Amino acid sequence: MGLRLSPEKTLITHIDEGLDFLGWRIQRHRKRGTDRCYVYTYPARKAVMAVTGKVKTMCRGMDTGQPLDALLIRLNWMLRGWCAYFRPGVSSATFKYLSSYTWAWVMRWLRRKHRRITVKELRRRFCGGGWWPETEERTLFNPAKVSTTRYRYRGTAIPSPWPSIR
Fold it and tell me: How far apart are CA 127 and CA 118, in angstroms?
């Protein structure tokens, strides 16, 4: 058929070195404070770079003649989906990074839109006096507030689908 195996996709590696699969980084680490090792899944660097690139291009590409609401709708849609996909892993540090990155780009867009007003005035007008961008209808989705879900290790309590040999 003329098919060839890709060296990147057919990589055989030790679990301690880790591997990237479907946007996840899967790697075994020693748990802090103990001698036990666990396999952790967290967002791969490539996936984080992709989402930050999307945030950047949305904020750069959005015309400053548009209202803040239009930018928030597009960013919220994209950020919610990304966070929902990476929620089951060890993602809280990545979510905090993404939150600060998005905030910085939205504030940069607001500074570009309203060049003559101060940051204090921007915060009063577009952040409700706080720090997080919002309008009357919606608020910028905050990835840092997404709680991660982890699964309890059940080990041998999971029944085997194969009959036991005695």
Answer: 13
